[in-house]
Write a structure and sequence with these properties.
Largest sheet: 8 strands, antiparallel
Bound molecules: fructose -6-phosphate
CATH topology of the largest domain: Glutamine Phosphoribosylpyrophosphate, subunit 1, domain 1
CATH class of the largest domain: Alpha Beta
CATH superfamily of the largest domain: Aminohydrolase, N-terminal nucleophile (Ntn) domain
Structural class: alpha/beta
Number of helices: 18
Strand order of the largest sheet: 3-2-4-1-10-9-11-14
Helix content: 25-40%
Strand content: 15-25%
Number of strands: 26
Radius of gyration: 25 Å
């Protein structure tokens, strides 16, 4: 939800800002803007639309020698995506600008008050109140004015402030929206996410809620917004490199990330398991054996694709660790009367570690005494910092808005976690654990071997089906969440209406929809519900439905029932979710391409949902 970059140092400002915004564009892309000091004043350039439009608009300013400035790429919350609503927003004098990610909840009251005091507003955004509020308090100390302004503000923010009278300093602040600072020799950076910093530095400081930072060529000073006191911050070293956040010859980030899955899965289990002895090592969970034995339930808490990973995790944890599992949509969970205590374990699952609802749910669970162990991809993100322990997925940066490698890495982490708990709780013997770990060990190779073939299948299938306007995805047991995930991938990047359904539920309603115009994607592994699933496929077929199946190699019976069948290898049943997911990702990708959609930046979406 919006990307912020800020820089002060010795480089020319525009390339740094534009490069940073390009790396953050996945966070929002309906408008963008930059501001920098020029001849004692501030220059501000904004444009509606994607970043390349801003870039074209900036052609005339390429020669600027300024080496400090702020940039923003927007995902609209308040006010339509127009140039006037694009950031940076300015105060009445035009000498102070603000970039912001988050929502100022009391903006309406503040705006009315400021208007009465004579401030003139030029946009419909909540952010503009920040610029005027700082202006109101500004005498000659920018930091003081920002601190005072933030005392009046309710809501969430990560913000950057630049003032023409102090053209060597940026001020940043954070409450409930991510902001990371970068440190290098004689230069300082701020950004909403790490990829924007990677070409310049790997030394970062994560700003926490309630903190303000002053950035200059001399370094970074962090203060408490409440007390104004200086805070000592830990500098962290990031292990990702800049190339990991680039396309490496692939047409889209999404495709690159689909192809990176064997490596991402491998990296997530590497060093954490001993298949021969059935042991899993997850010391980062930070839970003693006694605590794990004494648990009364597990809550998996997430949104979107991460929630689908949780739905798969439930089967594994219940089956192997014999613990009741609830899988919760964080946006619902946070408003319920919850039954949690210190014997419960809450596992927030999040790629970004910044999803507002998941974070809010985590905080409520924590208040009720639940233990919190998150599964997360971004080191140092807010969710990890507020958890008692974190099992990191080592997927590397995921830039494509549609989550792919993060999902299969989350499955990997959940699989390990379930076996780890089973071992500690004594609910699964060594032989069984060893067999399951060996099965996981094979997954990267299985996917690697078949990726090319599935991609070709998806390409051919897209050619035939890209004009259809509705799809139904059916699965049972472990494949039910995969049907949900397959449908989500298709709808979010191709804008085709797609629904995932538990195949057994078909007769309770959706079967009425079956006709020649709605392809049905059926996930049919040879598992204990195979016959049931085949019956469901027959039901579709006998109603003249079009069946696209994903089934195991050599399943001729299924092939005969299907208009198109994608074959996958027959594997250990618990491994199927990893395998069945990949062809569905590729089908969504190819259909979206065939429809001319922007795969990496689908309309109305943003990678990291840091507002409610
Ligand atoms: C879909 C997708 C979203 C995210 C969801 C949660 O492809 O990416 O549904 O899964 O917004 O995001 P994280 O995992 O960052 O909490």
């Amino acid at each position: 939800m919006c990307g912020i970059v800020g820089y002060v140092g010795h480089r020319r400002i525009l390339p740094v800002l534009l490069d940073g915004l390009r790396r953050l564009e996945y966070r929002g892309y309906d408008s963008a803007g930059v501001a920098w000091p020029e001849n004692g004043d501030l220059k501000r350039v904004r444009a509606k639309g994607k970043l390349n439009i801003l870039e074209e608009t900036l052609e005339d300013f390429r020669s600027t020698r300024s080496s400090i400035g702020l940039g923003h790429t927007r995902w609209a919350t308040h006010g339509r995506p127009t140039e006037e609503n694009a950031h940076p927003h300015a105060d009445c004098t035009g000498r102070l600008v603000v970039v912001h990610n988050g929502i100022i909840e009391n903006y309406f009251a503040l705006r009315e008050q400021l208007k009465k005091e004579g401030h003139v507003f030029k946009s419909d955004t909540d952010t503009e109140v920040l610029a005027h509020l700082i202006e109101k308090y500004l005498e000659d100390d920018l930091v003081e004015a920002v601190l005072r302004a933030l005392k009046d503000v309710e809501g969430a923010y990560a913000l950057g402030v630049l003032w023409a009278d102090k053209p060597d300093t940026l001020v940043a602040a954070r409450k409930q929206s991510p902001l990371v600072l970068g440190i290098a020799q004689d230069e300082s950076f701020m950004a909403s996410d790490i990829p924007a910093l990677l070409p310049y530095t790997k030394k970062v400081v994560f700003l926490d809620d309630g903190e303000l930072a002053v950035l200059s060529t001399g370094g970074i000073k962090v203060l408490s917004i409440n007390s104004g006191d200086e805070i000592e911050k830990e500098i962290q070293e990031i292990k990702w490199d800049a190339a990991m956040a680039e396309k490496a010859g692939y047409k889209h980030f999404m495709l690159k990330e689909i192809y990176e899955q064997p490596q991402a899965i491998l990296n997530t289990f590497r060093g954490r398991m001993l298949p021969d002895t059935g042991e899993v090592e997850l010391p980062e969970m930070g839970l003693s054996d006694e605590v794990i034995k004494g648990l009364n339930k597990v809550v998996l808490l997430a949104c979107g694709t991460s929630w689908h990973a949780g739905l798969v995790g439930k089967y594994w944890i219940e089956k192997w660790a014999r613990l009741p599992v609830e899988v919760e949509l964080a946006s619902e969970f946070r408003y319920r009367d919850l039954l949690l205590d210190e014997k419960s374990l809450t596992i927030p699952i999040s790629q970004s570690g910044e999803t507002a609802d998941t974070l809010a749910g985590l905080r409520i669970a924590k208040e009720l005494g639940s233990r919190i162990v998150s599964i997360c991809n971004v080191v140092g993100s807010t969710i990890t910092r507020e958890s008692d322990g974190t099992v990191y997925t080592h997927a590397g940066p995921e830039i494509g808005v549609a989550s792919t490698k993060a999902f299969t890495s989350q499955l990997t982490a959940l699989y390990l976690l379930a076996l780890y708990m089973a071992e500690r709780r004594g609910t699964l013997n060594e032989q069984e654990r060893s067999r399951l770990l060996k099965a996981l060990l094979d997954v990267p190779k299985i996917i690697e071997d078949r990726l090319g073939e599935w991609h070709e299948n998806a390409f051919a299938l897209a050619d035939e089906f890209y004009t259809y306007s509705d799809f139904l995805y059916l699965g049972r047991h472990l494949q039910f969440p995969i049907a949900l995930e397959g449908a989500l991938k298709l709808k979010e990047i191709s804008y085709i209406h797609a629904e995932g359904y538990a195949a057994g539920e078909m007769k309770h309603g959706p079967i009425a929809l079956i006709d020649r115009n709605m392809p049905v994607v059926a996930l049919v592994p040879k598992d204990h519900v195979y016959e049931k699933m085949v019956s469901n496929v027959e039901e579709v077929k006998s109603r003249r439905g079009i069946v696209i199946s994903v089934g195991v190699d050599g399943d001729e019976g299924l092939n005969r029932l299907s208009s198109v069948m994608i074959s996958v290898p027959e594997v250990e049943a618990d491994i199927n979710p990893f395998i069945f997911t990949i062809p569905l990702q590729l089908v969504a990708y190819e259909i979206a391409l065939a429809r001319g959609c922007d795969v990496d930046q689908p309309r109305n979406l943003a990678k990291s949902v840091t507002v409610e």
